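dumping these here so i dont lose them again. two proteins, back to back, each one seq then structure tokens. dont judge the mess
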Amino acid sequence: MTAPSPLRLAVLTTGGTIEKTYDETDGSLRNVRSVLDEILRGLRLPDLTIDHVPVMSKDSLDMTPSDRARIVEAVRAALVDHDGVVVVHGTDTLAETGAALHEALGGPRRPVVLTGAFRPFEFRDTDATQNVTEALFAARTLAPGVYAVLHGRPLAFPGVSKDRSRGTFVHRSDAG
């Protein structure tokens, strides 16, 4: 009997707060490089194969409709030969991209999970590692569909939005 092959996930990176790095020469926070590999090095994932697919490195507030179309196409391509897809995205417009994915993909045959962070990975009080870990787990266990996974909650699209006053994402069914 042969051992089952590891689950294969694609993790697409697009930039956002989670990947902002601090430039000490001018004091700025910018999207310069992906921090995903650094996050993944700190996790123990023996039965998971992860393919890191850099799509872009942008603040989500600067994303255009053509950027979202590019993300949709990258997700569509990743779904062909992966068991699930995680999209690391900026939280300011994560809900817009999730809605675009939900509309464009209809009912995907595998889970598509969007995640990000309210504070950059390089900050001591970041939620980046927690959210990436939860997104990886969710992509392994959720039914097919498009979701936002942050702060211990999977939220199915459509109906997901950022609630700035609560500092997290909510679904219209529990907002209020």
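---- next one ----
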Amino acid sequence: MKTLLPSLLAAGLTLAAGATLAHGQAHGHKHAPGHGAHVHGQARLLLAVHGNTVQISLESPLDNLLGFEHAPRTPKEKEAVEAMLARLKAPETLLALSPAAGCKAEPAQVSALPGQDGQDSHGDLEADFSFTCANPPRDLEVKLFTAFPRLKRLDVQLATPAGQAAQRLAPGKTRLSW
């Protein structure tokens, strides 16, 4: 994993429009307390609603998003990285808040992190999304399963004006309401 992000950057793959791709280890970034184990097919979504602002964080093994966790070695793997970054740069296509809320996405912030076990074969991605809405949103349609078919389960923690809750989403259950 140590060579993944430098290799991505050397290949000219960057997030535009204000988003950043940073090597977590280079900045001393560690997994947040409570971060779950690295399990392929599973990811975590943290959602916080405060007034008309929605903050969403996605934590996922890179395998769920790319199909591999090493530096891209082939043209096909380089294309997979480009496609993943393009999807993450368009959060409104992955996370659809209630249309009546009139939400606008800010640029995504993306970091890749080495696995907790310290092995080069495991890597995680964290993506932070922020939305500013004209009206308080009441629900979210999560389209991550369509964009990233290797993702099979999404554990969600919500903090909304109605309180805190936890839900589990899967390809057949993609809507959160609060």
